[in-house]
Amino acid sequence: MITSKELAKLAGVSQSTVSRALNDSPLISDDVKVKIKKLAQEHRFEMNSQARSLRTRKTDTIGILFPRFFMNLSTNLYFTHLYDSLQAELSKYDYDLLVIYDAKQENHLSPLEKMIKRRKVDGIILVKSDLNDEEMTVLERSGLPFVSIFCDDFNERTNSQYAINTYDGGVLAGKYFAEFQDYMPLYFGSLMDSSDSMNRLNGFRRGLNIAGSTVTNIETVVSEMSVSGAYQSVMQHTECFVQRRAVYVYNDMIASGMLMAFKDLHIDVPEHIQMISNDDIPLANWMHPRLSTLRFPTKDLIKIACQRLVREIVSGNIEIENMQLSPELILRGTTLHRKSL
What we know:
The protein is 41% helix and 17% strand.
């Protein structure tokens, strides 16, 4: 790698011309820009991000705010998958990704407020945001473009919102399990995301009813959103799994903990317990048995949301767009197949 001074010498121009050319200044001709950018690429030169930020008032960084129940990327497996997908998509636009953790407030400022006041990012992605009124006011007044993903409460916010229709996912699971009359339905939900967990349960109930199931009450078990939490919940509710069950699970991470517990309890899956979960994280296809799940169109949703955010950052024009995408039922080893009955 070379310095800006060395690059300027190679191009036969001043350092200020190099800086202007790499920042697409209208003061520099297109021919000179092409020449300098080509030399920069050949010699793997990159402008110092802090210096560039001072000149352009851009950080080339997008902030991502995870929900309050987020623990860490090693525990919340879906968010690991989500982070990787966001990073891959934003790298196409040459943006870095800054994760904002909802840690304890310091000096009465949340991590989101501190990031905004310190001008660390050019835009923000809210993941199933549960911002309080003060945080939302600060964000809207900042003028920073922001979008929400996996947010299912479309309202009058001044930002675009993109979500997965988890209610429809529950309907698909309910309709599938309704044909197994000798398997009593059970919902295994989340303690940490009660609103969306209830949404999935309501969809499950609706799907059962649509398919003609006579079940009027769906027994429910909840757990922490972790593999260990799901394992412990199964162990604490072993009586629920004495009879045959068709279990709809909040997500793949919880389902993986349940599978470990069933193995230790010598409960056969899918012969005694059938399971359909949500997300279709890469790990779902490596479990034994492989997880039947609702595949979320995560990459499609992220692509659309990132395109919108980048367009708003570049143009400065805010355009509100609300969109929901539906999941797809993927049947694998934790469910029996109808044709085999």
